[in-house]
Amino acid sequence: MAKRIDVKDLNLFYGKFHAVDGVSLAVPPRNVTAFIGPSGCGKSTVLRSLNRMHEVIPGARAEGKVLLDGEDIYASTVDPVSVRRTIGMVFQRPNPFPTMSIKDNVVAGLRLAGERDKKKLEEVAERALRGANLWAEVKDRLNRPGGGLSGGQQQRLCIARAIAVRPDVLLMDEPCSALDPISTLAIEDLIQELKKDFTIVIVTHNMQQAARVSDQTAFFNLAGVGQPGRLVELDDTEKIFSNPTQKATEDYISGRFG
Amino acid sequence: MTAATDLDRPASMPAFQEISPGRRFKNQLATVLVGLAFLAALAPLVWLLVTVLVKGLKYVFSLDWWQKSLAGLTPRQFGGGVYHAIIGTLIEGLVCAVIAVPIAIMVAVYLVEYGKGSRLARAVTFTVDILSGVPSIVAALFVYALWVTTFGLPRSAFAVALALVLLMIPVVVRTTEELLKIVPDELREAAYALGVPKWKTIVKIVIPTALSGIVTGISLAIARVMGETAPVLVLVGYNPFINNDPFEGNMASLPLLMTNERLTTTAAGEARVWGAAVTLILIITVFNLLGSLISRLTSLKTK
């Protein structure tokens, strides 16, 4: 079931470095939100803080609130593992588990959570692979290693793996940046379908992609090198790309800088 | 002068030069030096292997050699076998591995996955470095002081295994550490993002990914400790009978048998020394081959 995300005054740090300053934003359910902005503006950092992956990096910490349907994922009583079970993530580079077959990759999340029922795992594998538009291409070689697939197929395998655990939200960190245009198109089509069931937040360097896939777009920027990144504006994608409120946004999307 | 010869002539002088004689000479000199260094490194190894095989191979072709002990044979009598020493070497090596491998892997996991850069981790790395430089005789005497002098326990194959543990741990920690380090962080993050706890990520994702190399490292380490001589000289007595109990009584092993028979100066004794040397090399080779076989079976496949 898709859930909404509310970020309230989020500050993110790497050790002493203040990476992101005071971000507040809202992501409605069953909606695609794109994060755009120049390199180093903190968009990936914000994305990773939404399922507590930020703190995996030594020295990294977060201040502020991230509410998932009103529940703070940074509350002291919350187990980060359970947060990540609810909010899945797809990474920049496809990263299937090299020791596992295609099928085992897809059901890895469930199996490592203790699911033993073979029949259920088979069903989940098929449903997730169909959901990621990969089933037709791999159904005859489910027991082959996941590393043998093409880059685009591997990325869809990773999406299948992420949706197999039935998260409420799917975070995507530049999921197409390592892929060719045809694989990118396949993933973008997939995002449109996944939107029916999941809340999706996607970081992208490709503004056309943001314009194509997202319902709302957030523009991040930083004042200068060594300065923290901040959210400049968040609005409907159409508005951001036609008539943004902020001058910096307009300069960025029209290619005057960045 | 005709038009044809005009066309044959190049329009300008070639831009590239030939290799100068000086560089050609230096290149050949370097090639010769590298080749000589290779031969100098290889020659003693081949020489050693050929000598051992020529002098010892003929003794290991009998079934008795592999099945019987030297019980009841005088130093002058030919016959019998080294089964008692083979079983001793295997027991000491495997008991050592059973103790050392889990400890070493857990230390490596701590260093790479948990300790990263902490003061304790740096202290552990330093200790492991020192431990890997400890001579085997020092390890043996340390265990003697602890096991025999302090605890008052008898010399035994188990005490030998303990000394070998001290020699094996740093080797396995080092290889495992290097292999865990090259497992990409992306795999760890992929597992975390699926809601897999850290310990399970390490056990089910990180270690399996590095397993093939870890197995190779372990088999090399076992092969190495099985040839160690100082611990068996200090910590257990020689015995020509078959003894399967690591805690009780004297136990032979191939290095111990060799040092023991070397003192007999009889023809039969000499035969046993060379035969045991070949046997030890064969066993170590088998362990290395087993290691690379297992590592091939567990290596990552893309097809």
User: What's the CATH topology name of chain B?
Assistant: MetI-like fold
Q: Roughly how many Å is the radius of gyration of chain B?
A: 28 Å
What are the low-pLDDT stretches of chain A, counting only 5+ consecutive residues below 50?
A: none
Count of individual helical segments of chain A: 11
CATH superfamily of chain B: MetI-like
Share of residues in strands of chain B: under 5%
The string of secondary-structure elements of chain A, in order, is EEEHEEHEHHHHHEHEHEEHH
Characterization of the model:
The complex is a heterodimer of chains A (258) and B (303). With 258 residues, chain A is an alpha/beta fold. Chain A has a domain at 5-96 and 168-253: P-loop containing nucleotide triphosphate hydrolases (Rossmann fold, 3-Layer(aba) Sandwich). In chain A, 35% of the residues lie in helices and 26% in strands. In chain A, the strands form two sheets. Chain A has a six-stranded mixed beta sheet, sandwiched between helices. A four-stranded antiparallel beta sheet of chain A has the order 2-1-4-5, covered by helices on one side. In chain A, strand 4 (60-68) and strand 5 (71-72) form a beta hairpin. The longest helix of chain A is centred in the middle third of the chain and has 14 residues, at 118-131. Chain A starts with a strand and ends in a 5-residue tail after the last helix. Chain B has a single domain, classed as MetI-like fold (Orthogonal Bundle). In chain B, 72% of the residues lie in helices and 0% in strands. The radius of gyration of chain B is 28 Å and the shape is extended. The N and C termini of chain B lie far apart (66 Å). Classes of the chains: A alpha/beta (258), B mainly alpha (303). Chain A binds chain B through residues 51, 53, 56, 58, 81-82, 84-86, 88-89, 91, 93, 95-99, 108-109, 112-113, 144-145, 147-148, 158, 161-162, 165, and chain B through 116-117, 184, 186-197, 200, 204-205, 208-209, 211, 300-303.
